[in-house]
Amino acid sequence: MEGQEPLLLFIDFEFTMPEGKSDPVGFYPEIIEVGVVAVRNQKIEDQFSSYVKPNRFPLLSERCKTFLQISQAKIDSGITFHQLLTVLKKYTNDTPATIITWGNMDMKVLRHNCKMNGEEFPFTGECRDLSMEYKKFFGDRNQTGLWKAVEDYGKKATGKHHRALDDALTTYHLFKLVEEDKRYLQKPEPPTIGDRIDLTKVLGKYAT
Description:
The protein is of the alpha/beta class.
């Protein structure tokens, strides 16, 4: 639609974890929760949240359940990975969207999950890692955690940490803060001679 800004998709996933330091044979992180916040023209158009059933290792480790405060029953009631991809693709039916995540693991795991399940990666647009943009913008040596970055702004994050939709919303709110700082620090255009002098008064002196 003419005059409409591109769609921004703020996405967060939670993943499975192995029980101990040594991974089980063939283990790889699988998506078990998704949070999506769709934004256009600085307004939230849609939100989506769901648990997702893993395929390769369907039973969660105790470590995973404890860390994410999540139950096996909730994961068992989730959508399939194929259904997750169907949901993600619907956001980009009309035009490619810009995907924004905090860190690069979300898209890495999504790509690997697609490969292991014989599925096509659902996005064709730009993927932006907001944590790297934040790091470069503030000149930090180390990569800052999502909630620590929000606290550095003197703000509070949304909901609970490591809940996918809450983290996606927090990423969106942090994105707005960073973008506002970028605009504030941009150098203004140098004034033209017309801005410095009222030419109507100057020309009036020489009018005959």
